[in-house]
Amino acid sequence: VRGVLLFSPASLSDDLYRYLWEGRVVALGGNPYLHPPADPTWAALADDPIRLLVNHPDVPAVYPPLALLGFSLLARLHYGPLAVKLTMGLADLATTWALGRVLQERRRSLDGAWLYALLPLGAVETAGSGHLEGIAVASLALALLAWQRGRSGLGWAGLGALVKLLPIAVLPV
User: Fold this and answer.
1) In Å, what is the CA distance from 52 to each residue of 37, 46, 87, 146?
2) Is 169 exposed, middle or buried (0-12, 13-18, 19+ CB in 10 A)?
3) How far is Cα 142 from Cα 139, in angstroms, rounded to an integer?
4) 141 and 94 in contact (C-beta within 8 Å)?
5) 3 state SS of 92
6) Would you say residue 96 has pLDDT above 70?
7) CA 50 – CA 69 distance, rounded (Å)
8) How confident is the model at residue 101 (pLDDT cuts 50, 70, 90)?
9) What angle do CA 111, 113, 118 make, to 5 degrees?
10) Measuring CA to CA, which residue among 3, 44, 8, 2 is closest to residue 25?
């Protein structure tokens, strides 16, 4: 399912274009927190096809610093939606793997991990739309696996929080 979605248009949002644009800005040594896509600073890149697709071009970056670093790496590897969708789809598969390991170590059925793998929303959000939630949820699942093994798991949860703020809400639990 995720493989098919990699090659379909992003369906739930166009956020992945902002990810790519901000990644390109960082790769060029710019600061997307200071200069939004519509800023005259980027006049030389006015015909950039990704920049033209960025939603809310008057708003500067809002993503945490590690996310911007990741966007920069993706933009350098492949400046197109496929790079983002593939990365987020793989993160979603990592979530499935981590959930399966937790269930296996608890001597429980793997049905829950299979159910997660088959749920369309996760696949559409990650491999279909390239959303960062794939990395955030994978980080939480890996934190859960670490806790299952008697480790703190805070490193994984912290990593997720540096990419997307969602894991911060779960840390107290």
Assistant:
1) 9, 8, 23, 42
2) exposed
3) 5
4) yes
5) helix
6) yes
7) 18
8) very high
9) 90
10) 44
5 in Cβ contact with 128 (< 8 Å):
yes
Q: Look at residue 11 and give its three-state secondary structure.
A: coil
CA distances from 97 to 58, 71, 128 (A): 39, 24, 19
What confidence tens digit (pLDDT) does each residue in 134-156 have? Answer: 999 999 999 999 999 999 888 89
Contact 130, 19 (CB under 8 A): yes
- Rounded Cα distance between 44 and 52, Å, is 13
Q: Are 42 and 35 in contact (CB under 8 A)?
A: yes
Q: Alpha-carbon dihedral of residues 8, 19, 95, 163, nearest 10 degrees?
A: -170
Q: What is the DSSP string of 45-86?
A: GTT-TTGGG-SSTTS---S-HHHHHHHHHHHHH--SHHHHHH
